[in-house]
Every structure is written in C-alpha cells, then in structure tokens.
Amino acid sequence: MSQPHNINRLPAEMLLSIFRLTGTHGGPHGLPGIVIASHVCKCWRYLILQTQSLWTVLSISNREKDYADHARVWLMRGGVLPVDITIRWDSALVERKAEEALFPIDDAAPWADETSQYVRRSYMEYERFRELKRQSLMCELERHKHRWRSFKWNASSDGLIEESADADV
Description:
This protein is of the alpha/beta class.
C-alpha cells in the first residue's frame, strides 16, 4: 500500500495559501494555476472546488476555446463572493473567425480566381457574427453583475491595445 505524499499532510489552510499563489491567469496550455492544481489528485480537487474564495478573480480571453462557458463555471464556483473580472478581447481574432465562417475560401470552385476567392455574404451578417461572440460572454457576466468588485476590459487588435476600460464597481 502506498504512503500519502508529504504535501498532503499539510493542513488545508496551508494548501489553500499555496493554491492562491498559483494565480488565476493562464499558465501552461492557457489553464489557470488553480485549474491545473485541481487536476493533481482527488484531495486537491475537492479542496479547490469547495473553496469559493479561490474563484473570485476571473481573467478571461476570447482566445480561449469556450470562454463564455469558462466564465459561467468560474462565477458559479465563486458562489456569492465579490469578483474581480478582467477581459482580454482580441478583435483581430474575432474578425479572422468571422471571415472563416462567413467567407470560406473555395479554391476548388471552377469560378474561383484572385478577385472572387470568397463566397460573399452581407456586411451586416459579418457584423452580427462579431457582436454575437461578445454578447455570449457579456450575458454570462451580466447574470453576476451584483457581485462585480472590479471590471476591466482590454480590447486589442493584433496584440496592440486599442481600448481599455477599468471600473471599480
């Protein structure tokens, strides 16, 4: 029978202090430190998921695959505690995804040439796609607006900050 690791002999309060140091920003593979720690063992997972105060700093980016779902889960785990929210919004990424979805390249089509390589759709549909992506995240956040302690929105395009808004709520 295997012996428990020495770190699991530490009091829960000390483990929680260590977990707080791991941070909530993306680490390896974009996962926040506490999410990575929650996958180490059952003991850590239980402790992390049951400690609402670990989930009160939400840092999210639209570069994440399911960012709106990420926000929903994070806010749910924080319970009723006040939350600090930072959004990093890459407008160029949204535009690229919209173009891929709405204007797919069809080089195999007999009519395709340099001037007509895209299937064109209306500009309004393109703008609607961009706005829906932002709205899906904002709907999740709005459900918890009574808990916002601070809110930061950093919008960038190709890595350059275009606009930034901070608010202590």
